[in-house]
Amino acid sequence: MNVLVINAGSSSLKYQLYEMTSEKVLAKGRVERIGMESSILTHEVEGQPEVREVSEILEHTSAVRKVLDMLTHRDFGVLRDAADIQAVGHRIVHGGESFRESVLIDADVKREIRRLFDLAPLHNPAHMMGIAAVEANLPDVPQAVVFDTAFHQTMPPTSYLYAIPTVLYRKHKIRRYGFHGTSHDYVSQQAAAFLGRPLEELKIVSCHIGNGASCTAILHGKSYDTSMGMTPLEGLMMGTRSGDLDPAVVPYAMTKEDLTLNEVNSMLNKHSGLLAVSGISSDMREVVQAMEEGNESAKLAFDMYAYRIRKYVGAYAAAMNGIDALLFTAGVGENSAPLRRRVCEGLTFLGLELDAARNEASGGGTRRISADGSRVEALVVPTNEELLIARDTYRLARGAAARQADGQA
Amino acid sequence: MFRKIGVVGAGTMGQGIAEMLAAKGLDVHLTEKTPERLKTAQEAIEFSLERQIERWAITQAEKKVILSRIHPEPSLELLAPCDLVIETISEDLDGKLAVFRQLDAILPEKTILASNTSTLSLTELAGATRRPERVIGMHFVYPAVRIDVVEIIRGLQTSEETFRQTKDFIERVLEKKGVMVYESPGFVTTRLVCLLINEALHLLEEGVASAEDIDTSMRIGYQFQHGPLEMADRFGLDAVLAALERMFREYGELKYRPSILLKKKVRAGQLGAKTGVGFFSYDKDGDRVS
Questions:
Q1: Are B55 and A257 a contacting pair at CB < 8 A?
Q2: Does B146 sit within 8 Å of A266, measured CB to CB?
Q3: In terms of Cα–Cα distance, which of A9, A13, A23 is closest to A395?
Q4: Is residue B115 situated within a structural domain?
Q5: Residue A135 belongs to domain spanning
Q6: What burial class does residue A85 get, using C-beta atoms within 10 Å of its C-beta: 0-12 exposed, 13-18 middle, 19+ buried?
């Protein structure tokens, strides 16, 4: 079975085509600048040079049509016919409280995703355009939606409620939802398999550290607490996001600097974090390089960044009354040895002993960076959200097909 | 839906409208009378974007993208491929009539022609074209980037379809609230705010309160961001005077008669924030210094 995974943004659309028996990526690519005269489609097939095509793509339906044309292209394609795509999976940022797991799309699901537009005004409407675009092009193919928030729906109210008047929760659903759920879910499963221990017996803290960053306490395979909140702004310090902040800072800064809501929002999301403190970049590699060259603000930014991760690891170890494994994943987590070292150095009290050489060594796949005999395992686990979306889609589509066959029998 | 927008006239309003449209992801084709003015306008837009970066509203990358969407066009003919053209030259009937005649000859019949006029007759402007049903008013409130309401003005012959398309565009693409207004000098916003300003000037003339205290009372008392006198400074006292005179002529009612103080200030060239002095003083960035 071939599954197409789609991540639709407001002016972009990323795709990966999986063959599910081998879980192999047949092709992947992205469409950028949708809505403009010079949209760019980039298409990659393993072992072949990348293909780039510039054309006018005004909306998502044409974008999906272009992708299908490319997948079935005489020279660059990997499929004979678009009908060889048996299911499509979409990444959806916000599933609110309605979705605890991935589901197949029907009219109710679409209505519910639309109802959640208010909670994720930048993302969900774009995802919805992606769904409609696939529907228009492949009307008979089952589609599934996989939510960034779903994994965290197991959190208890002690973790997800904010200590503010509860009417705000009841009326507007203001609470912690958490994000990167697909990634936290995937890496915790990978880690359990790597360690050869059942996930149901493990206390894991996973750190998804990329452009956005979040920490999750995974107790016996279920999200128990996570650092991102109602929006992806809360929690760890990030590339350009502030993370945790005294909420009183917001009205104070607005008054002092005469800022509008839009400006203060943009300040916290796009002008803060590593970028603001280092004054150099939002990219960890550049900050580390500047720090090694003796730049003081880069060092401060790096130290703050690592310190906040360490605080969360400590807090979540306390939340679960223990920790068996600490996981690092995503761009920075998988690639920045200096950051992992700085985080782990201060966690020896938990019984975590880092192996310096293993930490520095590069390599693909899940790998151990803690020393032999360390009471807490530290692992680097490359994340693969697309694969998890493909797997969920595959499972749901197959289940539906089987039910249909039963019905006919 | 409109994607390519022509903006005719790159004064204060034209710059703001062009910047706002580009920030919303639209391709903007901007024209001015002379290449020098066009260049000045581009520099002003860039300066405004720099100011927004300082206020954390946008990033360097966003500034670049926004600027890349604003295409300076040396002549009106080049607006022919636009889906919508917004005229925003200075508030002068003969000037606007001339522009409308020219645009009517250049643009395909289906293109909608909008004017940002605040006091002139839409019906009269529409009369200069062969497409009166596709002429409409789009009155943005200054500063267009920040203020999220647009008065949509229906001239006598504006069609339902033109109105609907314009309202859809304003609400869905520009994400601003569109209010429907029938043609009448000053519409809602200009008529009310100019009367408020004029009355504040009378208070000042009569020595009832100081400029500072008049503004403070209204700012705190009725939650205005700026008091009426600072508002006048920011609009430009010449623009306020022109609007009042226009309404005075059209309605013939004494309440629109511009205060003598306003006339004196304009004659002295103290036009408000843009000249540094009005009722208060401003630095070159337009921030209040006293």
A1: yes
A2: no
A3: A23
A4: yes
A5: 2-147
A6: buried
